[in-house]
Input
Amino acid sequence: MIVLGLALVFFLALYSCPTRPPDRKQIDRDRQEEAVAINTDKLLLRAKEIYSQEQLSSVLGLEQGLNPMLSPTEEVEILKNISSQWNMLGDFALGGVYAERVANVVATDSAYSIAGTTYFSCFQRDKDSLVQKFCFDKAIQSFESAISIAPDNPVHNVNLGLCYVESGSQPMKGIMVIRDVAEKFPENALASITLGRLSLRTGQYDKAIQRLENALKHEPQNPDAHYWLGLTYQSMNNLPKAKSYLNTFLSLSDDSPKKEQVKAILKQIGG
Output
């Protein structure tokens, strides 16, 4: 209602008096400053408006356990639990904030990667555009921190590339980052599967098959490669191959939701 009310006021003001077109660059700068201004306190205030006291009691109780007398190990354990609690509530912005605090203490690439993944989940799911912007920037920073610590770990570069691709901000930059990983590490299944999936999305089926078959060459039991090959062949209406790969996926995967999806696809195509 607040957003609708503000839109109505703006609409009336626009047509009731002469106005100069807004400075688009200034608006963008203002929103950028607002996104930068988002902090833990503001996110906590937002959470208290969204969730009930009963939902918040556990995580806020953990928060009270943080104090300067804790050892780093104790602090990290509490921060991990707080991050997990926020994630379970569906607040991946705060989940990311506390995952980043863990990373800042332990300073490992895996910890920064977890923070980046959590922040990107926020970007994908949050309804507030300013929080989305905050989380996207934080995801990029986290993956860049992971890369700075472990530059030879291709997973971090693939995740960084995916941020750019999935956000739509700089898709070609993201694809180039992932492609560079695939060229340097042809045995890396994640990079090949990611490129194969992106090729399928754009209807480049031959490229998708090439990338996904390369993943299977190095990891024959990789369920994701079988899954995406199955979907690629389904898109090409090659149903025998689609059924074969999707059934293999079912035999290899522990991902229950995705298995249910595949079962539905197989039922639809008579597999």
Observations:
- The first helix runs from residue 2 to 16.
- Residues 1-22, 24-33 have pLDDT under 50 and may be disordered.
- Residues 37-150 form a domain with the Serine Threonine Protein Phosphatase 5, Tetratricopeptide repeat fold (CATH 1.25.40).
- The two ends are 49 Å apart (CA to CA).
